[in-house]
Amino acid sequence: MATELLLNKRLSRRTLNSLGRHAITAVDQVVEAYPERLLKLNGVGMTVLRDIERTLFPGQQFQPHSGRYKAWTEDAANQPHAEQAQSKD
In which element (H, E) is residue 71 found? Predict the structure, then answer.
């Protein structure tokens, strides 16, 4: 119960809803699933993962190197949209 209260007070509603759909309601469940298992859950993407990291893993940031989330690496996230569109041409 105490760990559930910590999640409710610290994470955004969007993150809580995404985790709740998969019966993840305790901090230890999130820690155990971080990061790969969390990203495999429907409705849990990089926005939810970043919220979890800010709250439960300060100073840590998962950097995917391949697959579906490759575009979310630090270099791609910092490029303005106009530059990304030009580089595709």
Answer: none
Contact 63/76 with Cβ under 8 angstroms?
no
* Cβ pair 49, 38 in contact under 8 A: yes
The Cα–Cα gap between 38 and 10 comes to 18
User: How far from 77 is each of 3, 24, 31, CA to CA, in Å?
Assistant: 32, 28, 25
Q: Residues 21-47: pLDDT tens digits?
A: 999 988 889 999 999 899 999 999 999
Picking from 24, 6, 16, the residue whose alpha carbon sits closest to that of residue 48 is 16
Please report the pLDDT score of residue 63 as a whole number. Answer: 87
Provide CB contacts within 8 A for 48, sequence distance 6+. 14, 15, 18, 19, 38
